[in-house]
Structure formats: structure tokens, C-alpha cells
Amino acid sequence: MPRKFMFTREEVLAAALDLVREQGITAVTARGLGEKLGFSSKAIFSLFENMEDVRSAVMEAASELY
Length: 66
Prior knowledge:
- It is built from 3 helices and no strands.
- It is mainly α.
- The longest helix is centred in the N-terminal third of the chain and has 15 residues, at 9-23.
């Protein structure tokens, strides 16, 4: 049975948006998100293929929000 995710894609995006608000888009790193969520940065890649996918999703979420 596959392991369940510790957090959802939406939670990762919310944490990433918080990082953008606090420190700018350059703060959106795997390590930064891992620290913000309280999990290993490797877990993020179970939901996203790479950091470019994370940043693209953050930009989309930000444009929808604002």
C-alpha cells in the first residue's frame, strides 16, 4: 500500500505563498518549504515533480488570489 502524504498540495502552496509574502519568491526552496511545513524537503517532491513546478503553481495561486 502506498504511503499517504503528510500534507496536501494546497498546504504546500499556502506555505509557499506565506514564504513569498514574508521573503519574496526566492525564499521558495525545497528546504524553506520543508522547514515551514515541519517535514523533510524531500516530501515535497512526492506532490511536485521539481521546484519549477512548485514555483509555477505558486505564481498561478498568487494570480488567482490577487
